[in-house]
Amino acid sequence: MLSKLSGKISIKNKNTTNCVSSILNVVHKRHISKDIRFGSDARTAMLTGCNKLADAVSVTLGPKGRNVIIEQSFGSPKITKDGVTVAKSIEFNNKLANLGAQMVKQVAANTNDKAGDGTTTATILARSIFQQGCKAVDSGMNPMDLLRGINKGVEKVLEYLNSIKKRCNNNRRDI
């Protein structure tokens, strides 16, 4: 088999073919132009994706949450009430909107991995933090000061939750 990369290269086995194919893909990807934006334009576009994803996921919240029908590329549509499943199924054509959605998807996936539930609540909280953070930065707040403030807030909430938690045994009276 022959492949081109600065001329002809003779390929003798499948592993070498995969390696050359990977190199060609990397070379090809380096020539794709990037859409680079800064400031409020970038934040607004990312927030659009975050909001659309959170809107789709938020309808599944709680015991009275509604089902979402997800179109699949093959087979019948999928019906679910699981926030992380809804989040994972959403992609946007706009790269910056998709980037905002990807950040929220990561929050939902991390919550699912660590807790196994609460992905919809985590998505709604992530959207709110992102919205308020964008407002603060747009009004002139230093993003690093904002991050430090969020981290301090997380510490305080965790301290409070640890102070009120009750350990449960298998004893029904403890519950």
Give a concise summary.
This protein is mainly α.
Characterization of this structure:
Keywords: ATP-binding, Chaperone, Cytoplasm, Nucleotide-binding. Helices cover 61% and strands 7% of the residues. By secondary structure, it is mainly alpha-helical. It folds into two domains: 1-32, no CATH class; 39-142, GroEL-like equatorial domain (GROEL, domain 1, Orthogonal Bundle). It has a two-stranded antiparallel ribbon. α2 packs across α4 (95-115) and α4 (95-115) crosses α5 (119-138). Mean pLDDT is 84; it is low at 1-20.
Named at the architecture level, the CATH assignment of the largest domain is Orthogonal Bundle
- Any idea what the shape is? flat
Biggest sheet record = 2 strands, antiparallel
Question: In the residues, how many domains can be counted?
Answer: 2
How confident is the prediction overall: mean pLDDT? 84
- How many runs of DSSP E, i.e. beta strands? 4
Structural class given helices, strands, pairing?
A: mainly alpha
Strand order of the largest sheet: 1-2
Number of helical regions? 6
Topology as a string of helices (H) and strands (E) = EEHHEEHHHH
Instruction: Tell me the Rg in angstroms.
Output: 23 Å
The name of the CATH topology of the largest domain is GROEL, domain 1
